[in-house]
Amino acid sequence: MVAAHRDSVPVGRRRTLVEMSIVVLTGAGISAESGVPTFRDADGLWEGHRVEDVATPEAYAAQPAVVHRFYDDRRAALAGVEPNPAHRALARLEERLGDDLLVVTQNIDDLHERAGSTRVLHMHGELLSALCRACEGRVRWTGRLGEFPACPSCGISALRPDVVWFGEVPYEMDRIAAALEAADLFVSIGTSGAVYPAAGFVQHARAHGAATLELNLQPSEVSRLFDETRHGLAGELVPAWVAELLADG
Ligand code: APR
Question: Is 49 a catalytic residue?
Answer without folding.
Answer: no
